[in-house]
Each structure stands twice: as C-alpha cells, then as structure tokens.
User: Which sequence fits this backbone?
C-alpha cells in the first residue's frame, strides 16, 4: 500500500498533463526532505523572488531549516534557539526569517547568511511569528496570551501589546494589507484593528482550532478544527463554506488559484479536494506520523507537508508534470524503457511495503 | 488499492539534505554577493583552487575513514557514553543516511536489556569498541 489513489475516470481533469498522467497511471512521487530529528510542527514559504522561492521549517529539535522551495534542497540551519521551535516564517523576499520557540524568545534572522539578527524576549513559550509585507514589523503570539508588535527598525523599543485572548495564542497573522490582525487561540479566532489595537470581531468554536491560513487575494481565511476545514472572509469573519475530512485535520492550505485545497492530520494522510465542489480528488499515504502542517508553494505547483515523523515532504499539485526535481515522461519518448524510473529510490520501496 | 500499472513519476534526484558539517548558507550560494573583482595574478586563482581541492580531498578521505569505521562496528559490542554520565553497551547494527540514529540490539541499560533499540546520535557523547 502507499502512493496515491487517482480517479482515472474523473470528468473534471482539466489539464492535458493530468489526463496524460491518468492515462499513463502515474503515481505521485513525494520528495522527502530529511535532516530534522524531531517532529516538524510548522512550515512557511516565502514569496517568489528572483532566486526562486524558499521554505522554512520549524522543528521540535530547536533547529529551523531553510530550503530551496522547488527542490527541497537544504540551504542552511538557523542555530541559536535553546528549545523546540514552534513557529517559523520568511518575509516576502526571503531575506529575513523569524522563529518562535519554547525558550521564551522569538528570533529574527538574516536568511541569506543564517546569522541571528535579533532576540526578542517574551514571558512564555512563543508559538507564532509573522512579518508585515514591508518587513518593518513582526507580530508574535504565544502562551502568555498577548499579541506583540515589534518595530524591526527599533529593536530596542518595547513592543506594542494587545491583550484579550483567554488562552494561549496558536497563530497570529497580519491581514488586509497589514491593517488588521487575525489571531487564534484554543477556541476562538479574533480580528483586531492594527491602528486602534482593539478587537473588531471574534468567532467561537466548540473544538480546538488546529490551524489558520490567510489568503490575501480574495481575503480568505482557512481554519481547521476537528475534522472540519472551514473558509471564512478575512474581513468580516463570515463563513463561506466548510468541508469534513475522514480524520482529525491539523492543517490545510488553499491553492493560490483557489481550485484545490490540501489538508493533513492525525491519520497520517494528505487529502486534496476540489475547492468548488468539495470532492476529494486524491489522497496520499507516505508520512509515518500525524501531519502537523501543510502549505501550497506560492506558484501552486507543489505543496509541502511537515510531520511528527520528522520529515518534510513535497508533493506535486499536478502529478506527472515536469517541475523542480520531477521529470515528466512524454508519450513520444515512451519506448517502455523511459517510463520506468531510471534510478531506484528508497522512498518508492518503503511506500510499497 | 493501487491499479497494477501505476508508474511513479520519475525524479532527477532526491532533495539534498544537511551536510552534517556546517550550518550551511554557503558563501558561494546563489544569493551571496559576488567576490570582489580585485587584481588577480595568474597564479593566485590556481593556488586558491588547489588549496580548496586539497581540503576537499582531505574531507573526502576523513569521511571515507569514518564510514569504514561504522562498517567495522557492525556486529560488535560498542560502549556508548551518553549525557549525564550514563554508559550503555549494545551490539551495533546500522546507522541511517544522516548518521542521526544508530540501530542497536541487546542494549544493556541501567534499567534492563532492550532487545532492539534506536540510539539518537545527538544523545551520544562518545563511543568505543574493539574491532
């Protein structure tokens, strides 16, 4: 068992490549990024830069890593935290990274040299960090239930604090062109106005909120709780739609073109859904532990998952397309020999077990 | 269930992992500023390259020796010194790709014998064995 289950008779396969892949019965080959020695609990992509795009992973081993986004190649490890790193993010042009850790600090890093730029002391475990679009401010949140806004041009100045959460903050994000802030604790999601630092609206949940993603184009908020994957307006918090997965979901991500969403959770599997219809399109086994985080790349060509098993895996959005390390085999070239992978990969073997 | 004729998408190679030696962010990486274009004597570039290639050869030789030492350990009794003065012995089986974990058997610990175990290399301070 293992590998993917593709609906070969799905009438909605739009792209020629997808049709070809189905006709050739191509199986998803995930790319496993090793190196972490403990569960991977958070991951984030940068924007698209002249050097491609980048991926940062937060790990309980305290050593967040930077990777090339389209290949998964390791670039460097940010060394300095003295505890599990719970959150990690990159600024838009991937020149800076920020991390949130159990050592009661958030750190800002130079993502080109790997050097530590700033250590921001907190009063409890820090769980989440987010840069504004212009990289001038850093938002943090954690177990002390406070949102903090640091001016990165004045690192010595005290941060602005927003209180109101009644349980530890799991995720905090800038939204609406950095004019508002979205934050999630165990059972609520709150929207704050940046200028007045006051709460605008809140949502209550019966179950623990496991993740939150903000999509600027279209102002969509993706929230996961229990087996639900819910979509809300990021401006009004009004619900748009929601889907139920077969198992408890820990993280979900919406494709940039809003055609698909991917989700992963406690059953170790990744699910891909059609966003418009909610139909489950593909599902993949492969991870050896619960999936903690999943995100689409900024160009939507792949998605990355981080797991309790200590690995990150990269998955193709359109299976069989030539992209990054994946190489499409065209029908004209197929003499029967080329269709077989030329090198045997341990990954394929272990998934076939 | 798999349809019997599925072919895994071919890949050029696997993603590169940490080199295990440094924290990375190689100075000759794509985003680093270029080396200053100073006056170059004809020999200097050659000297630079030969020193780098000597270093690389030395690194390769040391790595090969280390890998051979791991091979020599297979099936032998190894004594491990772990944190906080803990000593354990076990029969060495194998290591993983990144040398992050050692697979051992008959692990003798202060609280009993474990038939099979994985020792996290980050927990090991030193180890010794007689070939």
Assistant:
């Amino acid at each position: 068992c293992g590998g993917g289950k593709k609906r070969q008779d799905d009438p909605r396969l739009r792209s020629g490549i997808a049709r070809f892949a189905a006709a050739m019965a191509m199986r998803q080959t995930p790319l496993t990024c090793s190196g972490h020695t403990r569960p991977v609990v958070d991951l984030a992509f940068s924007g698209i830069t002249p050097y491609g795009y980048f991926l940062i992973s937060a790990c309980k081993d305290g050593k967040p890593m930077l990777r090339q986004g389209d290949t998964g190649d390791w670039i460097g490890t940010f060394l300095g935290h003295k505890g599990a790193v719970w959150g990690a993010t990159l600024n838009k042009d991937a020149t800076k990274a920020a991390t949130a850790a159990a050592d009661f600090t958030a750190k800002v890093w130079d993502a080109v040299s790997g050097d530590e730029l700033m250590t921001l002391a907190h009063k409890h475990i820090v769980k989440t960090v987010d840069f504004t679009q212009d990289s001038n401010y850093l938002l943090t949140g954690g177990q002390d239930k406070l949102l903090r806004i640091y001016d990165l041009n004045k690192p010595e100045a005290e941060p602005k604090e927003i209180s109101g959460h009644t349980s530890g903050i799991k995720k905090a994000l800038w939204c609406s062109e950095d004019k508002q802030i979205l934050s999630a604790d165990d059972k609520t999601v709150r929207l704050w106005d940046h200028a007045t630092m006051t709460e605008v609206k809140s949502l209550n949940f019966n179950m623990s909120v496991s993740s939150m993603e903000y999509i600027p184009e279209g102002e969509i908020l993706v929230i996961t709780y229990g087996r639900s994957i819910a979509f809300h307006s990021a401006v009004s918090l009004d619900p748009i739609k929601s889907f139920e997965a077969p198992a408890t979901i820990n993280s979900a991500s919406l494709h940039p073109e809003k055609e698909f969403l991917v989700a992963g959770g406690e059953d170790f599997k990744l699910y891909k859904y059609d966003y418009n219809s909610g139909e489950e399109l593909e599902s993949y086994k492969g991870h050896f532990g619960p999936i903690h985080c999943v995100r689409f790349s900024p160009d939507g060509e792949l998605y990355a998952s981080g797991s309790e098993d200590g690995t990150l895996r990269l998955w193709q959005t359109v299976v069989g397309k030539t992209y990054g390390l994946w190489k499409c085999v065209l029908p004209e070239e197929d003499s029967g020999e080329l269709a077989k992978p030329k090198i045997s990969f341990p990954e394929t073997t272990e998934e076939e077990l | 269930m798999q349809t019997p004729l599925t072919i895994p998408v071919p890949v050029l190679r696997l993603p590169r992992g940490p080199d295990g030696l440094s924290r990375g962010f190689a100075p000759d990486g794509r985003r680093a500023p270029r080396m200053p274009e100073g006056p170059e004597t004809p020999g200097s570039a050659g000297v630079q390259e030969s020193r780098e290639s000597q270093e690389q050869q030395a690194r390769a030789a040391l790595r090969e020796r280390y890998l051979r030492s791991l091979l020599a350990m297979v099936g032998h009794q190894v004594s491990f010194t772990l944190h906080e003065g803990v000593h354990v012995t076990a029969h060495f089986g194998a290591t993983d790709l990144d040398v992050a974990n050692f697979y051992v058997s008959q692990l003798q610990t202060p609280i009993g014998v474990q038939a099979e175990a994985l020792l996290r290399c980050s927990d090991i301070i030193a180890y010794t064995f007689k070939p």
